[in-house]
Amino acid sequence: MERRRTAGTGSATAVGAPRVSLRTEQRDLTRNRILDGAVEVFAAKSSVAATMEDIARAAGVTRATVYAHFRGKAEVVAALTDRVYQVSDSLYAELAAVPEWTRATVREWLEHAAASWRALAPTIRVLLAATPSAAGDDGSARDRYLAAHERYVALLTAPPRRWRRVTPAQARQRALMAVLQTGSFLTAWIAGGLPVDTDDPLELLTDDLCHLLRPALAGRPAAPRRPPGPS
How far apart are CA 98 and CA 213, in angstroms? Predict the structure, then answer.
């Protein structure tokens, strides 16, 4: 099914699917304007110093409108975190849906992931700078992080036949390491601005991911069976 990407959110809508109501569409547009305003304000003043009035001014809406969507800054930060998870969910679902993993398809996916991370970079930077108090962190952030990575691993390890050359435990660890390496590198390089002294950083990342995903890559010959030993 053809899908159309929604700018700024990383979500995709099936072409031909029933449209949401105009009221819902307008509400979502306003919510995203508020979140865009929050990113601008948090980048300039930090999530601690910023006020809901600052966010309203940056978004071009009233303070009452901001409070109609969010009860406070903690909810704003949580919604910004949702943006990142939504894009990540979409990216790993796309990789999982690739019929055959090859070096070429992994590289193509990484290019798309890097482009998505560039669009998310301002949001990721303010989230990295946000304090636990600004996020109202009561342990839920950790739980969401773990749950998200469980989703990504589940996506990448299905169907099991892709990983028939290794045990389920090995497949799970390889998938988890691939997810962690991808997210950490893109965040440090693109959002964090960490210098990378290579002409093509994605080429090296492709090498690493192909090594981790090697048992599931298409065209890889099965390991030779060891002849039975003497009885």
Answer: 13
Rg (CA), the chain: 21
For 191-208, how does the pLDDT look when each residue is reduced to its tens digit (9 = 90+)? 999 999 899 999 999 999
Kindly tell me if the per-residue pLDDT of 38 is higher than 50.
yes
pLDDT band at 141 (very low <50, low <70, confident <90, very high): confident
Q: Where are the domains of the chain?
A: 21-71, 73-219
Q: In the numeric block, which tokens belong to residue 26?
A: 């307008």
Give the residue from 95, 102, 107, 114 showing the smallest Cα distance to 204.
107
Alpha carbons 109 and 97: distance in angstroms, whole number: 11
pLDDT for res 226: 43
25-42 average pLDDT score: 94
Residue 132 φ/ψ, nearest 5 degrees = -55, -35
Q: Could you tell me the two tokens for 133?
A: 């108090």
pLDDT of residue 209: 97
Across the chain, the runs of DSSP E, i.e. the strands, are: 3-5, 12-14
Q: Does domain 21-71 have CATH number 1.10.10.60?
A: yes
| Residues 96-107, mean pLDDT to the nearest whole number | 97
State the architecture of 73-219 in CATH terms. Answer: Orthogonal Bundle (1.10)
pTM (predicted TM-score): 0.81
Contacts of 75 (CB under 8 A, 6+ apart): 136
What's the sign of the alpha-carbon dihedral 185, 219, 164, 100? positive
Residue found by looking up tokens 């090296």 in the block: 204
